[in-house]
Amino acid sequence: MKIAFLKTRFILYLVLLIVFAAFLFNFLMARQSAIMYKYFIARPTAYNVERAERLSASIYQSFKQEVTYPSPANIRKFVDKYNEIPFLSVNFIYKDDSGTIKSVLENVQEIDILRAEYVFPVKHGTAEVGTLLVYDINKEYRKGLAEYQQMLNITRIFFSILLLLLLFILIYREYSAKIEQDKQIAEYQAVHDGLTGLHNHKYFKGHLTQEISRSERYGKPLLLVMCDIDHFKHFNDTYGHLVGDEILKTVAGIVSENVRASDLVARYGGEEFAILLMETGTPKDEDNKDVRLEKLNEEALDITKRIKSRVESTRMEINKETTVGVTISMGVSFYSGRPDYKPEYLIHEADLALYKSKNSGRNLITVFNPLTEEFTQYS
Question: What pLDDT is recorded for position 83?
Answer without folding.
Answer: 81
